[in-house]
Amino acid sequence: MGKKINKKGLSSIVATILLIALTVVLVGTVWTIVTNLVEKSTEGSESCFGIFEKVSLNSEYTCYNDSEIRFSIDVGDIDIEEILVGISVGGSSTTFKIKETPSEIDNLIMYPGGSSSIIIPSKNGGLTYVLNMDGAGLSGTPDLISIAPIIKGTQCDTSDSMNYIIRCST
């Protein structure tokens, strides 16, 4: 009259399908969590990727005399918000940020002209600055000038530095 169905064979197939489905769901969940964590941790570093040699010190216009240090910053084909500048003289150092919007920075002026309204160089441009070393509490021969761009709120690594600064001829 009727055929007998092998219930033992059917239950092992259902159990296998359920295990495979559970594994796929768990892998998908773990994949989503890991992907989000990786994206969040690399989000800031993406803005600094590929800036090598795009924000640099121009050695031709960088020099010092007894009371001032003049330095020139060139910006390539990149949009930056700020530049962190560090200057070290005889064991003392000073740091300051040059911003997109004009601002006054103690003991720093634009060169030439002497304007105290300080801005960063525009894209594919360069500007020169003069720091009054006496006013900044620095005296002697500069040991190091370093710059680090700030892009999309993330401070990048040092993009350029000079550890040998010549005396200005004039």
What is the CATH H-level superfamily of the largest domain? Immunoglobulins
Q: Provide the number of structural domains.
A: 2
The chain-level mean pLDDT equals 87
| CATH class bucket of the largest domain | Mainly Beta
Going by helix content, strand content and strand pairing, the class is alpha+beta
The share of residues in extended strands comes to: 25-35%
The 3D shape can be described as rod-shaped
Overall CATH architecture of the largest domain? Sandwich
Main sheet specs: 6 strands, mixed
Low-confidence stretches: none
Taking Cα atoms only, what radius of gyration do you get, to the nearest Å? 29 Å
What's the total helix number?
Answer: 1
CATH fold-type name of the largest domain? Immunoglobulin-like
Helicity, as a percent range? 10-25%
Distance between the termini: 114 Å
